[in-house]
Design a protein that fits this description.
alpha+beta, 229 residues, 6 helices, single chain, globular, seven-stranded mixed beta sheet
Length: 229
Amino acid sequence: MNSEQPSRYASDLAQLGVSAELFSEATDYAAEQARMCSEFDAPSMPGSIFWSRANRYLAEILTDREKHDPPWNWTKRDSILRVVHPSGSHAITAISAHGGVADLDAKVRSKNPKGRAMAHLVENNAKFEALTGQGVFYSSDDIAFGRELDEIPLWFLLYGKNKDGSLAAELSLPVKMDGQFVNEWSKRIPVFTNRPDPGINIDLLDKPEEKTTNVNVALKDPKKTAEDS
């Protein structure tokens, strides 16, 4: 797929109330913020900032009443940053991915392992059925989102680097996990394939990268120190 978004994919995104331009702007903003990290930051910071800022941009734009009427909702319950469509029909979260992002002929999975809360949401996507409307009492989620938050289908904005360093993204609906990794999707919508190289590591690191240094620390022998004094 070339860098221009085919109209059929643009239509799919429009049905979900989003656009390729919105996601391009979100990842550009995230990259700009992540590039502010220096060698003195923790190794995981660029990836963490990219993830957080991409989700933040989506939330700031989609919940803005001047840009969207009605505005989207937003939540960070269970540390899953989500924007929720005003109708309560679906939600979106941005996460890093591994594999052929935006390449429908290739497999793609979540870059990092996911916990129990995410597993529940993915399972719900797979067996989702429309609400019957037979409930008598409204929960706080019904009031805020129109239905129970965990029952709202959650789409992933998957982002990752190509081999040449350029950035790719797709909007996909997860339906299955292999262990702690999300790896099956009922629908994948390519967003873009060759945004500029952000110039930093955008992966969320499970463990800080260990780097060896040439600094040697000489430990004094307590006995010898006493003799020298």
